[in-house]
Amino acid sequence: MIGLLDEALCFHHHSPNSLVEHLEYPLAVKVSKAIYRPIRKGLERLETRSNISIYQDEASHSKALLKLAKLDFNLLQLLYMKELSQITRRWKDIDFSSKLPFVLDRVVETYLWIVAACFEPQYLYARRIQTKLLVLITVIDDIYDAYGTLEELELFTEAIEGWDDNGIDKFPEYMKPCYHAVLDAYKEIEERENEKRSYCVHYAKEANTWELH
Predict the structure, then answer these.
(1) What SS3 state is found at 102?
(2) Cα 79 from Cα 67, distance rounded (Å)
(3) 89 pLDDT band (50/70/90 cuts)?
(4) Which residues contact 167 (CB under 8 A, 6 or more apart)?
(5) How confident is the model at residue 14, as a pLDDT?
(6) Closest CA to 114 of 86, 91, 83, 73
(7) Please, what is the Cα angle at 83 between 77 and 87, to 5 degrees?
(8) How far apart are the first and last CA of the chain?
(9) What DSSP designation does 23 have?
(10) Model confidence at 174: pLDDT above 80
């Protein structure tokens, strides 16, 4: 049985690659890409650019479809650039770089993570709010891992679990901007969501509290 599985594994790795040598471009490139990273394992928007290049070299390609694909790609790239510009501007307004100089700036990195999951243009609000929350989580993570004392972190954890500003006067100064930013972020969500979706805020808070444990 083991020998049969070994043969199957060998065939899986070597047989498709040997077939590529006998294929012509652009089919050979498409097969190589599929072997290296199947569609189900790729990120749709990251694959789009290379797929456009391959498609335009196909003799039977539709000029109208190709033009539409390029227009869609370029317009969405411009939308992402505009969103990221707005997000980074708001981040600079909070001024964590001077208030919390030990915190790493992961805004661009975090935004790219969120774009991978919510790339469609209509999910602008989801990208913006998820980026904000995830960036704040990374800030809190840096506070817990690299800066805060045990006593300070216990105060912060208790405050997050209560979701209010009671006891914030006991915080060291460096913690206050971060905690206010967290409360403001969830307040924005509450104001945005109507009564039918108010449960979202509850679960979002629970998820953020879970991150601290």
Answers:
(1) coil
(2) 18
(3) very high
(4) 155, 158, 159
(5) 58
(6) 83
(7) 145
(8) 45
(9) P
(10) yes
What is the per-residue pLDDT across 11-44, written as a single tens digit (0 to 9) for each? 655 556 666 666 777 777 887 887 777 777 888 8
148, 114, 128, 136: which is closest to 182 by C-alpha?
Answer: 136
Residue 180 has pLDDT above 60, yes or no: yes
Report the distance separating Cα 116 and Cα 169, nearest Å: 39
Say what the pTM is. Answer: 0.77
Are 55 and 66 in contact by the 8 Å Cβ rule? The answer is yes
Enumerate the H helices of 37-174 as residue ranges.
44-56, 63-94, 96-99, 107-117, 124-142, 150-162
- State the DSSP code for 148: -
Give CA–CA dist 141/205, Å, rounded.
16
Q: Is the CB of residue 142 less than 8 Å from the CB of residue 99? A: no
Q: What's the rounded Cα separation, in Å, for the pair 53 and 168?
A: 55
Angle at 88 between CA 121 and CA 81, to 5 degrees: 35
The mean pLDDT of 46-71, rounded to a whole number, is: 91
Amino acid symbol at 100: L
Task: Please give the DSSP secondary-structure letter assigned to residue 168.
Answer: G
Work out the mean pLDDT of the chain and round it to a whole number. Answer: 83
Tokens of 37: 């990273």
200: nearest Cα among 211, 212, 188: 188
150 has pLDDT over 90: yes
Peptide bond into 177 cis (omega under 30): no
